[in-house]
Specification:
mainly alpha; Cytochrome Bc1 Complex, Chain D, domain 2; two-stranded antiparallel ribbon; globular
C-alpha cells in the first residue's frame, strides 16, 4: 500500500513538473521569443535592434543571476536614458506572472544554454 501511494505521488509530481515546463515554454513563446528567438539565440529583427541576450551562449547564461532575470521579468528593463527595452511581463489578461510562473520561466531560459 505504501509503495502504491509513493508511486502515485511520484507520478503526480512528474505530471505537475511536466505541466509547469509546458507552461514555461508557452510563456517563453508568447512573451520572449519575439526578441530572444524561438531557440533563445536573439536572432530576431527586434532582438538584434534591442541588443537582446543570446540565451544559448554559456557565457551569457553565466553572467545572468536568477535574481536579475526574475527582476527583469517582473519589472522590465530600461536603458541608461530610461527608455524601456523590455516591458514587465503579464499574461494575456494583463495579470502579472505569478512567482511560480516567473521561476519556471527562468528555469526554461536556463534550459536554452548550449
Amino acid at each position: 500500500m505504501k509503495k502504491t501511494m509513493l508511486l502515485a505521488a511520484m507520478f503526480g509530481l512528474a505530471a505537475a513538473l511536466t505541466a509547469k515546463g509546458a507552461e514555461a515554454k508557452e510563456n517563453y513563446d508568447n512573451l520572449c521569443a519575439k526578441c530572444h528567438g524561438a531557440e533563445g539565440k536573439a536572432d530576431t529583427k527586434m532582438g538584434q535592434k534591442l541588443g537582446a541576450k543570446d540565451f544559448t551562449d554559456a557565457k551569457v547564461q553565466d553572467s545572468i543571476k536568477d535574481e536579475d532575470a526574475t527582476k527583469a521579468i517582473k519589472d522590465g528593463i530600461k536603458d541608461a536614458d530610461g527608455k524601456t527595452k523590455m516591458k514587465a511581463f503579464v499574461t494575456g489578461a494583463d495579470t502579472p506572472l505569478s512567482d511560480d510562473e516567473v521561476k519556471a520561466l527562468v528555469g526554461y531560459v536556463r534550459s536554452l544554454k548550449k
